């Protein structure tokens, strides 16, 4: 067994851990990163990147199919398209490999020592690394321990994962072949991003969601165009339904019993949905077990490790970032926290107090929320001005054949300071940067309304929403 000494030891090479390591290396901090699986973590290997690759591929296939059916208003005609799933997955895997290879190169450039293996916490300053057989390979002593262990999919006790018929997003992102029918449990981020993807690839999809509407984390008005699109795509929705457990099934078919939620339905006969696979996407939980974390007896916040606004845990020089610290479980939050912790360890004064953390759901159409929604702003005690600008009145949206959504701004009525932005529509994920910057910079409606926006662009809808809030809209 090798013994190592380091100043900063990072457990987990996901977006939180690897970004912390890069910045620490840049700042001259001797850094060691321990990763049990692949560099890049959930995000690069089995999360953000592979899901967005498949969403794109499915969108292209669906477009080609629409053109082949002769329904293209653009006059494009193609022969009946076919799909080579193995090639699609190979393309997706190629992107993942390029990115994870890039992370390895960046870490090397910053002289970060990467130790492959599973880190087991001995105490707040010592970690033992074990290989896949459980053999100890390294004992690492550190001054600072940064926990970036990420999260795992929530398993439903009534419907445990078996990796083949009851699957998580990890298997859904690497299918060997597509099922004919898929039941998705959970109409949140993963359930809808992947449910829509599978539907566009030709799979029959049903979504079971416990809440009375899809994407309950976003406001109802914002998710309405997504719900309309699900119907257009032929995805069956069972809203306000709970999953009771597996149903008896024959051969390769798998069944699930569902019933409307609520005591008044407890005597109702359960409905059985049959499928070839069930994707359970009912949330993720911080990864806190199986590597000795409990031995540190850190203060917890629910299932997450509790941290202060510098990502310090309740133990001196033990830090935690990313999904391990709970919601919102987003890659860009993990990265921002990781970068900050490295800078604090290097002696800088930093606090994690962002004015906003953008949330983007890559459904069809896409949904973005940055800062406060109208209801959240009112609940925070603000008198608000809100205004929407529809993409139906935006030239660029028309040329992109997607006019289904809108941009909405929320501002203080007294000062016109912008509190929030929301948008739903094709390609609106790319508007998140402008939204986030305006809020971080404390912009007022006039700042956005009087900025010249390029024509024709979706950004003009952002300007028009601000103009409309001021009663000065030009194009509606
Ligand atoms: P992780 O990325 O989970 O990385 C943790 C790493 O730690 C893992 O590699 C793990 O192997 C390693 N590890 C854990 N314990 C140990 C140990 N004891 N020893 C060694 N290594 C260990 N977020 C977005 O912002 N945008 C998206 O579009 C998006 N899409 C997603 C799609 C899917 C299907 C999923 C599942 C997630 C998605 N997310 C998205 C969420 C995003 O992936 C996470 O928020 C992000 O990866 C969290 O980063 P992290 O560094 O905290 O943890
Ligand atoms: P989620 O919290 O977004 O959605 C889970 C959904 O499942 C909820 O709507 C919930 O009401 C429902 N649900 C829970 N238990 C259920 C049950 N027994 N029966 C029916 N419905 C049930 O979680 P997710 O979709 O699993 O994604 C996990 C996390 O990963 C997200 O919260 C997000 O942080 C991250 N993520 C982000 C993106 C993105 O940024 N675009 C994409 C994918 C994942």
From TrEMBL:
<dbReference type="InterPro" id="IPR016156">
    <property type="entry name" value="FAD/NAD-linked_Rdtase_dimer_sf"/>
</dbReference>
<keyword id="KW-0560">Oxidoreductase</keyword>
<feature type="domain" description="FAD/NAD(P)-binding">
    <location>
        <begin position="7"/>
        <end position="338"/>
    </location>
</feature>
<keyword id="KW-0274">FAD</keyword>
<dbReference type="InterPro" id="IPR012999">
    <property type="entry name" value="Pyr_OxRdtase_I_AS"/>
</dbReference>
<feature type="disulfide bond" description="Redox-active">
    <location>
        <begin position="43"/>
        <end position="48"/>
    </location>
</feature>
<dbReference type="InterPro" id="IPR036188">
    <property type="entry name" value="FAD/NAD-bd_sf"/>
</dbReference>
<comment type="similarity">
    <text>Belongs to the class-I pyridine nucleotide-disulfide oxidoreductase family.</text>
</comment>
<feature type="binding site">
    <location>
        <position position="323"/>
    </location>
    <ligand>
        <name>FAD</name>
    </ligand>
</feature>
<feature type="binding site">
    <location>
        <begin position="329"/>
        <end position="332"/>
    </location>
    <ligand>
        <name>FAD</name>
    </ligand>
</feature>
<dbReference type="InterPro" id="IPR023753">
    <property type="entry name" value="FAD/NAD-binding_dom"/>
</dbReference>
<dbReference type="InterPro" id="IPR004099">
    <property type="entry name" value="Pyr_nucl-diS_OxRdtase_dimer"/>
</dbReference>
<keyword id="KW-0285">Flavoprotein</keyword>
<dbReference type="GO" id="GO:0004148">
    <property type="term" value="F:dihydrolipoyl dehydrogenase (NADH) activity"/>
</dbReference>
<keyword id="KW-1015">Disulfide bond</keyword>
<dbReference type="GO" id="GO:0006103">
    <property type="term" value="P:2-oxoglutarate metabolic process"/>
</dbReference>
<feature type="binding site">
    <location>
        <begin position="186"/>
        <end position="193"/>
    </location>
    <ligand>
        <name>NAD(+)</name>
    </ligand>
</feature>
<protein>
    <recommendedName>
        <fullName>Dihydrolipoyl dehydrogenase</fullName>
        <ecNumber>1.8.1.4</ecNumber>
    </recommendedName>
</protein>
<dbReference type="InterPro" id="IPR050151">
    <property type="entry name" value="Class-I_Pyr_Nuc-Dis_Oxidored"/>
</dbReference>
<feature type="active site" description="Proton acceptor">
    <location>
        <position position="455"/>
    </location>
</feature>
<dbReference type="GO" id="GO:0050660">
    <property type="term" value="F:flavin adenine dinucleotide binding"/>
</dbReference>
<feature type="binding site">
    <location>
        <position position="209"/>
    </location>
    <ligand>
        <name>NAD(+)</name>
    </ligand>
</feature>
<dbReference type="Pfam" id="PF07992">
    <property type="entry name" value="Pyr_redox_2"/>
</dbReference>
<dbReference type="InterPro" id="IPR001100">
    <property type="entry name" value="Pyr_nuc-diS_OxRdtase"/>
</dbReference>
<feature type="binding site">
    <location>
        <position position="119"/>
    </location>
    <ligand>
        <name>FAD</name>
    </ligand>
</feature>
<keyword id="KW-0520">NAD</keyword>
<feature type="binding site">
    <location>
        <position position="283"/>
    </location>
    <ligand>
        <name>NAD(+)</name>
    </ligand>
</feature>
<dbReference type="Pfam" id="PF02852">
    <property type="entry name" value="Pyr_redox_dim"/>
</dbReference>
<dbReference type="InterPro" id="IPR006258">
    <property type="entry name" value="Lipoamide_DH"/>
</dbReference>
<feature type="binding site">
    <location>
        <position position="52"/>
    </location>
    <ligand>
        <name>FAD</name>
    </ligand>
</feature>
<keyword id="KW-0547">Nucleotide-binding</keyword>
<keyword id="KW-0676">Redox-active center</keyword>
<feature type="domain" description="Pyridine nucleotide-disulphide oxidoreductase dimerisation">
    <location>
        <begin position="357"/>
        <end position="466"/>
    </location>
</feature>
